[in-house]
Design a protein that fits this description.
The protein is an alpha/beta fold and 251 residues long. The protein has 11 helices and 8 strands. An 8-stranded parallel β-barrel has the order 1-2-3-4-5-6-7-8, surrounded by 5 helices. The protein is globular, with a radius of gyration of 17 Å. Bound molecules: 2-phosphoglycolic acid. This is triose-phosphate isomerase. One of its GO terms (biological process) is glycolytic process.
């Protein structure tokens, strides 16, 4: 296993209301308590379930809370948006930024994502910056260049001290929710390129995401630059998410 502490984040996307979130946590916490304390675990429910999740998780420090996005602005006339300080009120430790679904449907640019990263860090949260290429870009042989350009676009202005506090999730778009997980050597190639692109990334957690399942998670974790997973579908069921993590770190 890698030297760096593994991190697994359940990205629930637009799934689970507050009561479903409470049920998940009730079932998941006892399973999570059995997982090595070396492993960091977080769940990212929708905004409307964060209060319920914070209350249900309060009794234990085993599982951290993450948000799925946030505004780059501190407050003001941004209808529908949520600020970092609002998330901090619910003990949110991580925030996923720049997920490909937000880049696609909400037209988030690298520039805006970079501003969100800085706002999250300023509020004391760890940004999980998601990057990844489309199938067309991969087939053209430009996956590495594309991912490094996304990183430069979002983090180029960040100081090295700040950049060392970021989590990066490599999620090839063609592998998300499709069941077509990326070959682990391909994922490692990108993770290695990310790590080597900046001195500040030497010890940050780099996650893989895209159809990660209990059956394939350990293969990724055996790769030297992959430290965990950003897990969508397989994080919605408590037993499946716990089995994925347990299997991944046992190898
Ligand atoms: P998936 O989603 O595990 O369902 O492929 C991963 C993600 O989008 O973060």
């Amino acid at each position: 296993m890698n030297r760096r502490a593994p991190l697994f984040v359940g990205n629930w996307k637009m799934n689970k209301n507050a009561s479903q979130t409470r049920s998940f946590i009730e079932a998941f916490l006892p399973l999570a308590e059995k997982i090595s304390a070396r492993v960091d675990i977080a769940i990212a429910p929708p905004f409307t379930a964060l209060a319920a999740a914070a209350a249900a998780l309060a009794a234990s420090s085993r599982v951290a809370l993450a948000a799925q996005t946030m505004s780059e602005y501190g407050e003001g006339a941004y209808t529908g948006e949520i600020a970092a300080s609002m998330l901090a009120e619910f003990q949110v430790s991580y925030v996923i930024l720049g997920h490909s679904e937000r880049r696609l449907y909400q037209h988030e640019s690298d520039l805006a994502i970079g501003a969100k990263v800085r706002a999250a860090l300023a509020a004391g949260m760890k940004p999980i910056l998601a990057v990844g290429e489309s199938l067309a870009v991969r087939e053209e042989g430009n996956a590495v260049a594309h991912v490094l350009a996304q990183l430069e676009g979002a983090l180029g202005e960040l100081s090295d001290d700040r950049a060392a506090q970021v989590v990066i999730a490599y999620e090839p778009i063609w592998a998300i929710g499709t069941g077509k997980n990326c070959d682990r050597d391909q994922a490692q190639e990108i993770a290695h390129a990310i790590r080597g692109s900046r001195g500040a990334f030497a010890e940050i957690p780099i996650l893989y995401g895209g159809s990660m399942k209990p059956e394939n998670a350990s293969a990724y974790l055996q790769m030297p630059d992959i430290d965990g997973g950003l897990v969508g579908g397989a994080s919605l069921d408590p037993a499946s998410f716990a089995a994925l993590i347990t299997g991944a770190v046992a190898a």
